[in-house]
Fold S-layer protein.
Amino acid sequence: MDGVETTVGPGTGQAFLELVFEAPVESSVANVEGWLTLPDEFGGGVVYANYLQQIPASGVFRLMFPIIVPDTVEVGEKNFGLTLSHRNKFGTLIKTDYSIQVDVGGRADVSAVIYTPSFTANSVSILNYLITNNGTAPAYNVELNIRSEIPTIRVLQPVYTIGTIEPGRTTQVPVPIFIDKTTQPSLYGLSSTISYRDLQGNIRSKQFSMPFVVEENAKPGFTARTSQPFITAAHTTPVSIIFTNKNPFPARDVKIAIRSSSQQVVIIEGDTDLFIPVIQPGQTISTQLRLLAIPQAGDTVIPIKTSLEYKDDIGLSVTETLDINLAVTADISIRLRSLALSPQRVQPGETVDIAGDVVNEGTGIARAVYVEIDGQPPFKVLGEPSTFIGQINPSQVAAFTLNFIVDSQAKPGTYEVNVKVVYKNGFGDEFQASRTLVYQVVERQQTSIILPQPESSSPVNPLIVLLVVAAALAAVILIVRRRGRREAG
């Protein structure tokens, strides 16, 4: 495939079947031609290949036959017919028929086991996905994507990377969902997609709906819930644990124990061991706790475990264990810092650069972070109006630069441009922070060119000319007189 040797199987598509031959010991061969007859599963017909060079005795040569391997090919051994012709050293044309056995390998077939669990409203519940590879080859880069199309039912973690699932293996993926108290009792489904790569590297995907039931009435016994389904990492949060007797009889000598199942969420205040002499049918009791979630607990679901022991209406001892799931949201605080416009005073048609930093001042990881700019005219987009940063860890700073152009017809004045950073937490919730910057449009400056003036000669003063001439005449007269005196002497 594409000049690289690779394993092929059902669904590979276009590939080449390479056959290696050895020339006879006693003769060289030339003008080799081959016709490969394809089985019906491969579309039938005949494909052609040749090797026209001279091959010495016992020499090795190869023929490459193009074939299509469709999805419908069954796994197992396949028979191809081959007719080979060549000329020996004497120029004699020789034809030979061969039967070629080709082994077609397995393929991955990943699907989900469908079952219908039941949950109650106003709770964080766990929906267990069972992902199975029913094929005969490994499935690689398996990923599960889940979304809810019901506003009152929310998937707390929508994407799961599973990795490789070997043939015949099943992987369980616990998916936390939040069911709002306003959700009506009914049968619901979550839209789910499984994607993976098969043995040949092809991307496969399957879509299905995972059903579940929201019950109208809880089963007899006690129910337990929290006053709020979410707490924040790196904070302490007051939470009430609320118990309700759903039995049709009074529960007597009720002992309740409350424990956290993880060291990432600790109960720091409140009664965790309760004794109530009697709880009437339908009666509710609660206890106030203060929970501390460490920073590492962000984007996780932590069960609070409760156990109840009581006597029923005929005096028999009853024990119940109830888990209350708490979703811990990460402590993320994203801020735009050191924003600067260059220039701040701009002429029509000029480009403005915006530079700054995105800093995470929280203790949780900000995901899918990007920065974008927008504004009212004369703001005009120049290139991409946004830049993708990706993940920003706690106390990390990411720099960015964006730019825009001022409309060439812009009028002088003061205008605003908005800078917005958008990010998500581990549950897929989207947040944003924004800043507004101000720039000033000024009149376009007119550029003029000043050429150097040629130097002008100064006019000669006539008085100076007369003085020069008079001095010259006086000198001539003096010389003539001196010569006259010498001759007279």
